[in-house]
Design brief:
With 185 residues, the chain is of the alpha/beta class. It has one domain: Hexapeptide repeat proteins (UDP N-Acetylglucosamine Acyltransferase, domain 1). It is built from two helices and 19 strands. The strands form four sheets. The protein has a seven-stranded mixed sheet with strand order 2-5-8-13-16-18-19. The chain has a five-stranded parallel sheet with strand order 1-4-7-12-15, covered by helices on one side. A five-stranded parallel sheet has the order 3-6-9-14-17. β10 and β11 form a beta hairpin. α1 packs antiparallel against α2. The chain is globular.
């Protein structure tokens, strides 16, 4: 087994590989996120939205952000009108995340645009996430970079979404993958 290579993590690129703002902005955001966005005692969705917008997030009208939400870099987040972001959702957005209008992202869902090259140097790999309008990503899902969730798709609870999801389907790990459903107007 000793002939299998191991990456020397002391030589791996650091956390700042995705920083595209000065360090003081990233640190100031970290404080504001803790006080106003992630804080479970802060009950105002409107205040969360205002703080996110102040740091460059593009958030539409009527968007609801529940407590304990985390956003790595708000300037890389776009959320359309009337979308609902559930309690404990984590946007680990080292790259862009675009959420359409009337989207629901339910409790404890984790969206991550970053990963690492496993072979070689552990360099950061960043790919965007796009959630089309009308989609519902239910509770405790994981959505990885490079994925697009189609219009009015439904992702069932606790699903790993590591490939594109077609429009208007129920998608998930319980055997219902690719099941079409009708959306009544």
């Amino acid at each position: 087994m000793s002939d299998i290579p191991v990456i020397d993590l002391s030589k791996a690129p650091g956390e700042r590989a995705a920083w595209d703002r000065p360090a003081w902005v990233v640190y100031l955001w970290a404080v504001c996120e803790l006080l106003f966005v992630t804080n479970p005692w802060q009950i105002s969705s409107g205040l969360r939205v205002r703080v996110l917008r102040a740091f460059g997030a593009e958030i539409g009208n009527g968007v609801v952000f529940r407590p304990r939400t985390r956003v790595k870099f708000p300037w890389k987040l776009r959320v359309g009108d009337r979308s609902w972001i559930g309690e404990g959702v984590w946007f680990h957005n080292q790259g862009d995340i675009r959420v359409g209008h009337d989207v629901v992202i339910s409790q404890e869902t984790f969206l991550t645009t970053g990963s690492h090259r496993h072979r070689g140097d552990m360099a950061l790999i960043v790919r965007p996430i796009e959630i089309d309008s009308g989609a519902w990503i239910t509770s405790r899902c994981v959505v990885t970079g490079g994925v697009r969730v189609g219009r009015s798709a439904l992702v069932i609870p606790m699903t790993l979404v590591s490939r594109d999801v077609e429009a208007n389907v129920v998608f998930g790990s319980d055997g219902a993958i690719g099941t079409r459903f009708e959306v009544k107007a």
